[in-house]
Amino acid sequence: MTSHLARNYAPLPVDIDTAEGAWVTDVTGKRYLDMLAGYSALNFGHRHPGLIAAAREQLGRVTLTSRAFGSAALEPFAEALAALCGKDLVLPMNTGAEAVETGIKLARAWGYRVKGIPAGRAKVVVAANNFHGRTTTIVSFSSDPDAREDFDPFTPGFVTVPFGDADALAAAIDDDTAAVLIEPIQGEAGVIIPPEGYLARVREITAERGVLFIADEIQSGLGRVGETFACDREGVVPDVYLLGKALGGGVVPVSAVVADEEVLGVFEPGQHGSTFGGNPLAAAVGLEVVRMLETGEWQERARLLGEHLGEKLDPLIGHGVTAVRRAGLWAGIDIDPAIGTGREVCEHLMARGLLAKDTHGQTIRFAPPLSIRTTELDWAVEQLSIVLA
Ligand SMILES: *Cc1c(COP(=O)(O)O)cnc(C)c1O
Fold first, then answer.
1. What is the model's pTM?
2. Local confidence band at 197 (pLDDT 50, 70, 90 cut-offs)
3. How would CATH label the architecture of 49-294?
4. How many CB atoms lie within 10 A of CB 4?
5. Catalytic residue annotation
6. What CA–CA distance (Å, rounded) separates 22 from 381?
């Protein structure tokens, strides 16, 4: 049978039918441990009972109002999310790419209206090997040929510097620079962790130079790294948080831009929006996600499980693995090319009942639901060592 799906993905050949917690079951009844967790959209596991209950409750009330009207669900979500971030205002959107686009528009409007950049000249400094989404503007500053080829002409106004090099970043900033936009840890690039002190220096440099620091925490944020945000690892507070993925609890797409009044206050009615952004169903699920993160238990769990995962993965270095990079319950594992490609290893893992995703050829990412058990993590690493042997 030929597929009617466009071929913009090359999924592993599994058709998932049902899921619960860290496990999924395919149409033949075979079970798999989910070590990708929807690229961290499923931080709390599949169908977390609290999130499903919040969604069900809201389904019985109202699901969509549009922002032409208010909803009872939206303000409580915004209030809780702003508090979680320590900021004043929330601008709700749907997908991560929309949050990034909103962040770019925000940076430009702030640059002209607050900083006083001359018309048409605002620039945003970004990092090489970034992943911020798939819109035409966002791929304009990607360094991945697959993401760009034949999608030009591109949006101007971006300057790329190497990731992790604070001096290069400082040198790229001039009077027309509105913002620096980076992932505090580069997820799609293979869980690339910048040198210690980098985020703190980015914070210092941007504050000194009067430039917004926009942190794309869409994949790194909301518990994954053992803290609420990856920026917390260096005690850094950016001017703007971009959030998505786990904010929707794996139930609905929910993203947001979160910042203080003097930044996010630049938007006036009519200047930006979204039909579905902040809809009552999204707000109800998002509020429950924020409540779950308020106690710090998920962050603590990611920290402890991550340390355990690291202890199990590190001994594989030199045995089919050339490097392991880890932050909380998030690991980039570089596979020795002598063993095979990341994709081949993922196919063998799939046959053994474990779903993981390769990135950039030789890297496999482990980002299981934070609800996974220690014994399940042990089992996952055991499957990996069998496949590598
Ligand atoms: C996934 C991701 C995005 C894009 O999110 P979508 O919901 O797929 O549009 C943006 N930034 C980062 C860091 C991401 O990981």
1. 0.98
2. very high
3. 3-Layer(aba) Sandwich (3.40)
4. 5
5. 131, 216, 245
6. 15
Listed residue (343, 310, 253) closest to 39, CA to CA: 253
Is the beta carbon of 217 within 6 A of some atom in ligand 1?
A: no
With respect to CATH, is domain 16-34+297-388 assigned 3.90.1150.10? yes
* CA 300 – CA 279 distance, rounded (Å): 30
As given in the structure block, the two tokens for residue 126 are 């970004």
H/E segment holding residue 215: strand 212-216
Phi–psi pair at 275, nearest 5 degrees: -60, -45
Residues spanned by CATH 3.40.640.10 within the chain?
A: 49-294
Whether 39 lines ligand 1, by a CB cut-off of 6 Å, is yes
Domain with CATH 3.90.1150.10 in the chain: 16-34+297-388
Rg (the chain; Cα; Å): 21
- Is residue 216 within 6 Å of ligand 1 at its C-beta? yes
Two tokens, residue 367: 């980002």
Joined together, the tokens standing for residue 335 give 């596979």
Residue 254 and residue 43 in contact, taking contact as beta carbons nearer than 8 Å: no
CA–CA separation, 61 and 58 (whole Å)? 5
218 CA distance to ligand 1 middle (Å): 6
pLDDT (0 to 100) of residue 1: 64
Q: Give the pLDDT confidence of 272-306 residue by residue, as tens digits.
A: 999 999 999 999 999 999 999 999 999 999 999 99
